[in-house]
Amino acid sequence: MPTPKKGARLGGSASNQKHIVSNLAMSLFEHGAIKTTEAKAKVLRPYAEKLITKAKKGTVADRRAVAAELPSKEIVAYLFNELAPKFANREGGYTRSIKLENRSGDNAPMTHISLVLEETVSTEATRAARAAASKQAEEAPAEETTEVEAEKQDEK
């Protein structure tokens, strides 16, 4: 086995590492959250976020690129059709990592990595601003109609 040039390999070879990361990403997209070692989570996070970014674009070329990375057609379709629209308002940071206790067998540091499906604070703020503006717009015509009715009463 050749010596890796950058960092430790998760598997024995580069191709084995690609398969491991690909399978982790498929599990993450399928289940929404997985529990894995800290080293695998650190490798998985940028890989999964790049795939989600490609899915957000939604072009045929991006779909083919993701399909080349993930062997399951069902997961690719789920990623493009259902997950990508949920991340439409998010500019990155699609995953969240939470450190857990070490694994009891070999004392390996474990991490819970999950997809962040909640809306960002800024989108919630803009939604609140739009809701307040629409309330004001609804109240303004209601006030005008009451003023018009009051004027009609005064004329009588």
Question: How is this structure best described in words?
Answer:
It is built from 5 helices and 3 strands. It is mainly α and 156 residues long. It has a domain of 105 residues: 50s Ribosomal Protein L17, Chain: A. It has a 3-stranded antiparallel sheet with strand order 1-3-2, with helices on one face. Helix 2 runs antiparallel to helix 3.
Mean pLDDT across all residues, rounded?
86
What is the overall shape? elongated
Assigned CATH architecture of the domain at 14-118: Alpha-Beta Complex
Strand order of the largest sheet: 1-3-2
Low-pLDDT parts are none
Largest sheet: 3 strands, antiparallel
Helical amount: 55-70%
The CATH class of the domain at 14-118 is: Alpha Beta
Number of strands: 3
Determine the N-to-C terminus distance. Answer: 99 Å
What is the SS-derived class?
A: mainly alpha
H/I helix tally: 5
Question: Main attributes?
Answer:
mainly alpha; 50s Ribosomal Protein L17, Chain: A; 156 residues; single chain; 3 strands; three-stranded antiparallel sheet; ribonucleoprotein
Task: Offer a concise description of the structure.
Belongs to the bacterial ribosomal protein bL17 family. It contains five helices and three strands, in the order αβαααββα. By secondary structure, it is mostly helical.
